[in-house]
């Protein structure tokens, strides 16, 4: 997790490093997945669906849980989606960034062909197939389709942010205790998760081992034949027997895969290999044993609870694990909003980097307190984890469906595979996710409306900001002053040039901003050296320090005017103002000394 860690840097890592990252990932990535057994069966049987003596219901639900968890979490995310990284980074914006670079799409207004010379901008070397060329051309020529794709990506992002509100709120405590815990969680965010990140992993590991041991005990003690439920036949029997009530109850099954998206989103903090090892070797088998054991217990104890002798120890560990899950969701929300801000899809907010050693650890004060207020409002307003679970399920399935659709495009446009392969993946995974989406949407009046309202509000904010930013840039471009127009005024620009360096920030990467004409007209003097600074984001996660600054001269040498284009990736940490200005000035000095046309400085 050290700064600069990427997929490329981890390829040659030792086994010890990979295993250490796998251990650390337990405390960050798997909080949601690990706490799912607390809610799945409870939410599934919270409505009219009930357990009966013939065990059709519990066997059917277990079959749905097993196959959903295996197909979505293991097959889709571990074996397919995690291969679609963007220079080691994952998440919705990583997929969108891959598509934008390979299909020449962009939501950033001031992109230039020179940006594509960066090493991180490299696309697949294989030649386009006729199918990928056709699809790319279709997107490149259709502006409305590009806007639709952006809105679709923002939908997935907004649903992920709503997860950040619902995950802390779903913790099953007494209302007053929940509120106290929520306030405590949000109050310590400014310290940074890196200070306790390594301590999170033991709680998750202990919890997973605890529920797996209890699961094995329940299997052998209560119902050794429970493994029959792993047959897909029981899913069809369940739907045939329970009908519409069974279909509506499957929104609870969705909670078994909450957090699967985190494996993909947090790849940049660890590595794909370490996350896969942690999931396949510990998380997956432990959770499967827990679900099977819980079903075995419920098959013989329809109205009972777990033994009181183990209740309090398990309750304490579960409480700690729920806090970890909440922390992971909050941190993910901070990261997503930071990316949206870099891509002109969110208003400017103050971002505090809480660690100088660990990359990606950020804190956003305004967002933190808004999240806390929303969590408290949801917890106090609903007073029912089942209703919160319905909202949570809708958010989770929507995000996963967005990822599936983007992956279908990546398969054709980026991986250059046949469209049949993409359609097969889309139909296979998409049909499963839409099946659960339909179940969750039906419960809009029972709590699922929260996800829709939260996502709609955030979507309006994001799209409005992106639209306004684009229009502002268009205005700046239309009204910029041509370079020749000012150069004809002579080296002094018609005013007194005094010693010093003047920095003029602008959005345009060529010409002069419109406001500079007003400055020339109304100010009596200007600095002897003028530097026009354009800070821009590019569609890669990181820009290397060697390629960050691009210096060029404006006009002849005697004009002493320079242009500095500063490029940041959507996951880069912006330099502090003092360090940035020092680095830029030293780059200009080196540029003057070398006499090159363009220079980059490490």
TrEMBL record:
Alphabetized InterPro entries for the sequence: K+_transporter (IPR003855), K_trans_C (IPR053952), K_trans_N (IPR053951)
Major location category of this protein: membrane
Protein name: Potassium transporter
GO molecular function, one term: potassium ion transmembrane transporter activity
The keyword Transport is annotated on this UniProt entry: yes
Record's keyword annotation contains Endoplasmic reticulum: no
The K+ potassium transporter C-terminal domain, residue ranges: 499-573
Example of a GO cellular component annotation carried by this entry: plasma membrane
Subcellular location: Cell membrane; Membrane
Keyword set, alphabetical order: Ion transport, Membrane, Potassium, Potassium transport, Transmembrane, Transmembrane helix, Transport
Membrane topology: Multi-pass membrane protein
One matching Pfam family: K_trans
Protein purpose: Potassium transporter.
Transmembrane segments annotated in the record for this chain: 58-79, 149-167, 173-189, 196-220, 246-265, 277-298, 310-337, 358-380, 392-412, 419-436, 448-465
Entry similarity comment: Belongs to the HAK/KUP transporter (TC 2.A.72.3) family.
Domain K+ potassium transporter integral membrane: 21-487
Superkingdom in the source lineage: Eukaryota
């Amino acid at each position: 997790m050290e700064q600069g860690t990427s997929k490329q840097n981890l390829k040659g890592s030792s086994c010890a490093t990979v295993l250490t990252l796998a251990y650390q990932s337990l405390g960050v990535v798997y909080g949601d997945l690990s706490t799912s057994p607390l809610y799945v069966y409870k939410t599934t049987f919270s409505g009219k669906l009930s357990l009966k003596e013939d065990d059709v219901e519990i066997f059917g639900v277990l079959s749905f849980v097993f196959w959903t968890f295996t197909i979505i979490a293991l097959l889709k995310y571990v074996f397919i989606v995690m291969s679609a990284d963007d220079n080691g980074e994952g998440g919705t914006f990583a997929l969108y960034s891959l598509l934008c670079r390979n299909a020449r799409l962009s939501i950033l207004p001031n992109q230039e062909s020179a940006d594509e010379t960066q090493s991180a901008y490299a696309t697949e070397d294989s030649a386009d197939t006729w199918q990928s060329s056709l699809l790319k051309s279709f997107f490149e020529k259709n502006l409305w389709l590009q806007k639709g794709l952006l809105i679709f990506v923002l939908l997935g992002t907004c649903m992920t942010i709503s997860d950040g509100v619902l995950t802390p709120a779903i913790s099953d405590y007494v209302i007053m205790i929940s509120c106290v815990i929520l306030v405590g969680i949000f109050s310590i965010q400014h310290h940074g998760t890196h200070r306790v990140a390594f301590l999170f992993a033991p709680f998750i590991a202990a919890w997973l081992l605890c529920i797996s041991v209890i699961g094995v005990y329940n299997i052998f003690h209560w119902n050794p034949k429970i493994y029959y439920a792993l047959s897909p036949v029981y899913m069809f029997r369940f739907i045939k027997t329970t009908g519409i009530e069974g279909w509506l109850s499957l929104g609870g099954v969705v909670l078994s895969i909450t957090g699967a998206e985190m494996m993909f989103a947090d790849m940049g903090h660890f590595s794909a290999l370490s996350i896969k090892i942690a999931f396949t070797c510990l998380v997956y088998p432990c959770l499967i044993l827990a679900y099977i054991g819980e079903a075995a217990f419920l098959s013989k104890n329809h109205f009972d609870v777990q033994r009181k002798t183990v209740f309090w120890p398990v309750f304490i560990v579960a409480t700690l694990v729920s806090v970890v899950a909440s922390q992971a969701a909050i941190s993910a929300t901070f990261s997503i909003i930071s990316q949206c801000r870099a891509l002109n899809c969110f208003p400017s907010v103050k971002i505090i980097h809480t660690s100088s050693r660990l990359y990606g650890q950020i804190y956003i004060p305004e967002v933190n307190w808004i999240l806390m207020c929303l969590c408290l409002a949801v917890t106090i307003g609903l007073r029912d984890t089942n209703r919160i679970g319905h909202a949570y399920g809708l958010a989770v399935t929507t995000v996963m469906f967005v990822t599936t659709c983007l992956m279908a495009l990546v398969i054709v446009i980026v991986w250059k595979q046949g469209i049949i392969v993409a359609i097969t993946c889309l139909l296979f995974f998409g049909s499963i996710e839409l099946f659960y989406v339909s179940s969750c949407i039906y419960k809009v009046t029972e709590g699922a409306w929260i996800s829709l309202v939260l996502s709609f509000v955030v979507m309006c904010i994001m799209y409005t900001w992106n639209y306004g930013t684009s229009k502002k840039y268009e205005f700046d471009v239309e009204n910029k002053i041509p370079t020749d127009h000012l150069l004809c005024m002579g080296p002094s620009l018609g005013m007194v040039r005094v010693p010093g360096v003047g920095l003029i920030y602008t959005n345009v990467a060529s010409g002069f901003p419109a406001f500079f004409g007003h400055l020339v007209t109304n100010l009596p003097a200007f600095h002897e050296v003028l530097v026009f600074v354009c800070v821009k984001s590019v569609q890669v996660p990181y820009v290397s320090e060697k390629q960050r600054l691009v210096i060029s001269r404006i006009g002849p040498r005697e004009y002493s005017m320079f242009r500095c284009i500063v490029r940041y990736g959507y996951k880069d940490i912006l330099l502090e103002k003092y360090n940035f200005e020092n680095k830029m000035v030293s780059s200009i000095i080196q540029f003057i000394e070398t006499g090159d046309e363009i220079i980059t400085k490490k």
